[in-house]
Amino acid sequence: MSDHIYKKIELVGTSQTSIEEAVKNAVAKAAESVRNIRWVEIQETRCHVENQKIVYWQVTVKIGFTLDEE
Amino acid sequence: MSDHIYKKIELVGTSQTSIEEAVKNAVAKAAESVRNIRWVEIQETRCHVENQKIVYWQVTVKIGFTLDEE
Amino acid sequence: MSDHIYKKIELVGTSQTSIEEAVKNAVAKAAESVRNIRWVEIQETRCHVENQKIVYWQVTVKIGFTLDEE
Amino acid sequence: MSDHIYKKIELVGTSQTSIEEAVKNAVAKAAESVRNIRWVEIQETRCHVENQKIVYWQVTVKIGFTLDEE
Amino acid sequence: MSDHIYKKIELVGTSQTSIEEAVKNAVAKAAESVRNIRWVEIQETRCHVENQKIVYWQVTVKIGFTLDEE
Amino acid sequence: MSDHIYKKIELVGTSQTSIEEAVKNAVAKAAESVRNIRWVEIQETRCHVENQKIVYWQVTVKIGFTLDEE
Amino acid sequence: MSDHIYKKIELVGTSQTSIEEAVKNAVAKAAESVRNIRWVEIQETRCHVENQKIVYWQVTVKIGFTLDEE
Amino acid sequence: MSDHIYKKIELVGTSQTSIEEAVKNAVAKAAESVRNIRWVEIQETRCHVENQKIVYWQVTVKIGFTLDEE
Amino acid sequence: MSDHIYKKIELVGTSQTSIEEAVKNAVAKAAESVRNIRWVEIQETRCHVENQKIVYWQVTVKIGFTLDEE
Amino acid sequence: MSDHIYKKIELVGTSQTSIEEAVKNAVAKAAESVRNIRWVEIQETRCHVENQKIVYWQVTVKIGFTLDEE
Amino acid sequence: MSDHIYKKIELVGTSQTSIEEAVKNAVAKAAESVRNIRWVEIQETRCHVENQKIVYWQVTVKIGFTLDEE
Amino acid sequence: MSDHIYKKIELVGTSQTSIEEAVKNAVAKAAESVRNIRWVEIQETRCHVENQKIVYWQVTVKIGFTLDEE
Predict the structure, then answer these.
(1) Contact indicator for H6, A17 with CB cutoff of 8 Å
(2) Judging by beta carbons within 10 Å of its beta carbon (0-12, 13-18, 19+), is residue A2 exposed, middle or buried?
(3) Which of C54, D58, G38, J43 ranks highest by number of CB atoms within 10 Å?
(4) Which of B44, B46, B52 sits opposite C39 (nearest CB)?
């Protein structure tokens, strides 16, 4: 009935294995402090390199969640 | 006298009637938790459609407010 | 169960009265030829001017709809 | 017959009521000093907020007009 | 000999497992109605979240194909 | 009297001689299947190179046409 | 010796023959009212179409000139 | 060992003297409420002008910090 | 009481010493011909190099001023 | 102690299996000619399609490395 | 069989006659030092002006070439 | 007489003191290996933070130089 309001926060998830895993890690971390996550927007993907190998995938995401019941 | 610092938060306001109403709803929600809102930047406008009609205007906004006295 | 696929088409709706009306006109036109419209993304807003007055609001939109049953 | 040349100027129109009104105000102001306005491109929309309410819609526009007869 | 013409269409592929799978699903759907697909440009990646978990990867793609023999 | 609706499609025209020729080829191809083309927006220009020489100009364009009588 | 200041103005040049000609027409028009033009930045290229043919190339340019002696 | 998660917040620092000072002021303010700041991304620089003089440099920054131990 | 209208002009200020000085020079120049400057938006920063040293900082700015009383 | 300088080069890595593999291939190639790679920024992802199937993932990356000891 | 790797370099070609000629000049220069050029992406077009006339077309291009056999 | 060709390379300069110093450091480093540097384009500014203080300004620049005599 009432109009919803959503908030977006910006996190950087990291993973040693894949882009998808880095995004999942960011969502899992966000889920510890916000309820009702609804969507993720991938903003940017970078890698950290050591010894000439990729050691971390770093994915910047915006995470949207419903603000109504906060 | 002292230099001010502002913070921006990103919300998505929604409305069944207009873009302006969606923005106002976002500001009203923000006003519940932050004081001293100073400006709004409209980022993106989308609509949710059902039964071939627009049912919600969804407007992503950045809301800027003074941080000094928090 | 199955993964959905959506298609986006790009239209320019026009109206003599408002941005919202121009978007609605674009959706109404799209609804004549595609089923299951789900969302609209507003891309760009321009006006056509004659005799120093705005005579048309021209709003470029992307309209997303489900492709599955086509 | 001859090729036209257009110029664009950038204004910020404001209004206490709506985005459309802010754009119209910018066009009306431009019409005081340039003739033959042909189109408007909306660039950016912001709001000025006081006492936790939106008091002004501020819309940055580019206004295009024919330069030939100036 | 003759110059080729290509067309691009914009789809959103989805998958419960990965970004790559979502793109493949979009291409498979496009292949039902257009021939001679030549390339894909990934535009945007989002996720749909339910119960604090990612349930769909949603990847917007532009799909380019040869128009000559249509 | 009534408000017009336009559609945009995205093509890539190619030519061995010039950017302008590539755009014209795209318009000519579009004219085979859509009526009432009104404008073209040039999006991107690339070249295909073989034996260290440019052999094709590839120009991505959006072509706008009136949808009313479709 | 002294630091220079430049101003940029934004024009749209048109031509029935080529992009280059449209830019030259814009520069020629600007040269009627400003002195000391130094550079041009091409911003956007569009075409006006009638009877399914390109009739005008429309090129938006920013024209930079020295302000010192104005 | 474990994958890190970072959060970015967006502030506007101001200074009467320089861009660098405005950024430092934003970081100092952020340091009052978040620990483990790691990097700053400068987004946008504006100035506030009064009596035809620049009175404030206003620099929008994104500030990234480690979320793990919050 | 009445709604304000602002105009933006685009200048390039230069300085042999710093980015801030280049911006100030642009504002000082603008102040010779427009009244009521209100804000500056920094658009782009470049340097001119001679003999392998930076000799000029060149900063493109948009300068906003109140149009009402012109 | 001393300030570091980094250089970025732009490569396109390809892979028949995944986006991550394409990025790794680009890094491996870069590692043949530059030392001290520090990070990767993913710029653009495209696919090459043959027989209506994706045959190559093509990922444009910027690779950053320390220049000091070259 | 093996996955290819490409490198992009960024040049600015110039010409007194046309945009196309400026691009060709950049490709010819690149061909002196790199083999296996495959494509060109046009990034930006500017003109140098003297005595109120365009004297050079300056076109920034990215040139892509195969790295495998280097 | 002949048309010039320029090349751009992308570096990240760093400094503990200012943005300008970081740019100068990048130019000084480039000057060790390329001759005839002509201009710098500032792309992005970031800071590295330790112990809640900015310890490095990191400025990404494109450096343009004449290729003719290489």
Answers:
(1) no
(2) exposed
(3) D58
(4) B46
From chain B, pick out residues whose CB is under 8 angstroms from the CB of C38: 48-49
pLDDT at position B8? 98
Domain count, chain E: 1
Residue J1 lies in a domain: no
Q: Is residue C1 part of a domain?
A: no
Segment C21-48, tens digit of pLDDT: 999 999 999 999 999 999 999 999 999 9
Running DSSP on this structure, what letter comes out for residue C1?
-
CATH number at residue E46: 3.30.1660.10
What ipTM, to 2 d.p.? Answer: 0.95
Residue of F nearest to K62 (CA): F46
User: What domain range is I25 assigned to?
Assistant: 6-66
Q: What is chain H's mean pLDDT, rounded?
A: 94
The C-alpha atoms of residue B18 and residue D21 are separated, in whole angstroms, by 14
Closest by alpha carbon to F31, among F68, F65, F69? F65
In tens, the pLDDT along F7-33 reads 999 999 999 999 999 999 999 999 999
In percent, how much of chain A has pLDDT > 70? 91
What pLDDT does A70 receive?
45
Rounded to a whole number of angstroms, the distance from the CA of D35 to the nearest CA of chain I is 17
Does K1 reside within a domain?
no
pLDDT value at L52 more than 50: yes
- On whether residue D22 sits in a domain, the answer given is yes
Q: How far is J55 from chain L (nearest CA, A)?
A: 31
For I8, nearest residue in chain D (alpha carbons): D10
* Gap between the Cα atoms of J46 and J13, Å rounded: 11
Closest residue in G to F62 (Cα–Cα): G46
Cβ of J49 and E41 within 8 Å? no
Q: How far is E3 from chain C (nearest CA, A)?
A: 26
Report how far residue D35's alpha carbon sits from residue D14's, in angstroms, rounded to the nearest whole number: 21
pLDDT tens digits for range E48-69: 999 999 999 999 999 999 996 5
